[in-house]
Design brief:
Layout (H helix, E strand, L loop, with lengths): L8 H7 L12 E3 L2 E3 L4 E2 L13 E2 L3 H18 L4 H17 L1 H12 L3 H19 L6 E5 L4 E4 L6 E5 L5 H14 L3 E5 L6 H10 L8 E3 L6 H6 L6 E5 L2 H11 L5 E5 L4 E5 L5 H13 L9 E6 L4 H12 L12
Parallel strand pairs: 7-8, 7-10, 8-9, 10-11, 12-13
Antiparallel strand pairs: 1-2, 3-4, 5-6
Length: 333
C-alpha cells in the first residue's frame, strides 16, 4: 500500500477541508486508499509520442480486494436515501468543475483531442452527474384491491464494473458512475489502457465525497477486463467499446448470469440529396466524419451522395478536409 489517502473522504469533502488533488502521480483507488502495484506501465501522448506517467498494472488480487470492498460498502450504501446520494453526486460534480483545467490538460495529454474539446467533455460529464442526481424511479402500483396490493419496485443490484473506452474517458466514466451510484449500487471503474489517467483521478477525487468502497478504480493491461467479466461477485457489467469486444464481454458474463449493458460502435450513414446547399453542409459533414479522429460511435461511417451532385460534392469535401489541422491538442489553432 503506497501513498496515504483519507479514508473518511465524505467528511472531508463536506467540510471543505479536503486535500488538494495533484496530477503528477497515478494510483489505483481501492476502498478509498491509493495503492500501487509491483508492475507499472504507461501510455503515450498521441500528439508527441512522449510517454505519460506510470500507472499500476492490477492483478487478480487487486480485483478481489476491490470487489470485496464494494460488496461491503453496498450493505450500507444501498440503505442511503435518494436525496443523500443525489447531494453527493452534485458535490462531486462541483469538485470536478473546480479541477477542470487540470482534467482538461490531462485529457488532452492522454487522449489527444483539442483542449477546447476536453473542456466540452468535462462540461458534459458534470451536466450528466447533476442530471442523474435528480433521477427518480418511483414504485408502480400494479394492483390495489381489497384482496391484494401488488407493487413493482426497483432494488439495487450490487456491485457494478464499468469498463471505459479511450475516446471519451471522462464522459463515459461518468455515464457509468452517475446511474450506478444514484440507484444505490457500488462501482469499480476499469479505464482503457490507452487512457487511464483521468479515470484514476476521478476515483481519487471521489474519496472526498463517497464512503470507502462505493467508487473505486483499477488500471491495468488487456487481461484486466476478463478479471471483471468473469468475477463471481460482480453483479453487472457496463461496457462501452467495440462490437468485437462487446461479444467477448457478453460471453464471459454469461456463466455467472451477470446483467450486461453494451454500448457499442455504430454504423451511421449520411444521405446527401440532390437539392442540398453543398457549401453549407460540407463543414458540418466533415466535423461529423472526423471529430475525435472518427472514434465516436455516432460519427458518419458512410456517405450516400446523389449521383447528380457527386463530383461537385466530392471535390468540395476533399478540399475542405485538407484544411483541417492535425497536431497537438494544446495548439490553440
Amino acid at each position: 500500500m503506497s501513498p496515504s489517502a483519507t479514508t473518511n473522504g465524505v467528511a472531508n469533502g463536506a467540510n471543505g477541508h479536503s486535500p488538494k488533488l495533484e496530477f503528477k502521480t497515478y494510483h489505483n483507488q481501492i476502498n478509498n486508499e491509493l495503492t500501487d502495484t509491483v508492475k507499472t506501465r504507461h501510455s503515450i501522448n498521441p500528439a508527441t509520442i512522449e510517454p505519460n506517467a506510470e500507472v499500476p498494472v492490477s492483478t487478480q488480487e487487486d480485483v478481489d480486494k476491490a470487489v470485496t470492498a464494494a460488496r461491503a460498502a453496498f450493505k450500507t450504501w444501498s440503505k442511503t436515501t435518494l436525496e443523500e446520494r443525489g447531494e453527493k453526486l452534485v458535490a462531486y460534480a462541483d469538485a470536478i468543475d473546480s479541477y477542470k483545467d487540470n482534467f482538461a490538460s490531462l485529457l488532452t495529454a492522454e487522449q489527444g483531442k483539442p483542449l477546447a474539446q476536453s473542456y466540452q467533455e468535462i462540461g458534459m460529464a458534470t451536466t450528466w452527474l447533476r442530471a442523474f442526481s435528480t433521477m427518480r424511479i418511483p414504485d408502480e402500483i400494479i394492483e390495489d384491491t381489497d384482496e391484494r396490493l401488488i407493487i413493482h419496485t426497483n432494488v439495487p443490484l450490487g456491485v457494478v464494473a464499468g469498463i471505459v473506452p479511450w475516446n471519451y474517458p471522462i464522459l463515459l466514466a461518468v455515464g457509468k458512475i452517475a446511474p450506478a451510484l444514484i440507484t444505490a449500487n457500488t462501482l469499480i471503474l476499469k479505464p482503457s489502457p490507452y487512457a487511464p489517467y483521468c479515470n484514476l483521478k476521478l476515483a481519487e477525487l471521489a474519496i472526498q465525497f463517497f464512503p470507502p468502497g462505493v467508487l473505486q478504480a483499477l488500471s491495468g493491461e488487456e487481461d484486466l477486463g476478463p478479471m471483471f467479466t468473469t468475477h463471481p461477485d460482480i453483479d453487472k457489467i457496463a461496457f462501452t467499446g467495440s462490437i468485437e469486444t462487446g461479444k467477448k464481454v457478453m460471453a464471459a458474463a454469461a456463466p455467472t448470469l451477470k446483467r450486461v449493458t453494451l454500448e457499442l460502435g455504430g454504423n451511421d450513414p449520411a444521405i446527401i440529396c440532390d437539392d442540398v446547399d453543398i457549401e453549407a453542409i460540407i463543414p458540418k459533414l466533415a466535423i461529423l466524419s472526423f471529430l475525435c479522429c472518427s472514434q465516436i460511435c455516432m460519427m458518419i461511417k458512410r456517405l450516400y451522395v446523389h449521383e447528380s451532385i457527386y463530383d461537385r460534392f466530392l471535390s468540395a469535401f476533399v478540399a475542405h478536409t485538407k484544411t483541417l489541422k492535425v497536431g497537438p491538442g494544446t495548439d490553440p489553432e
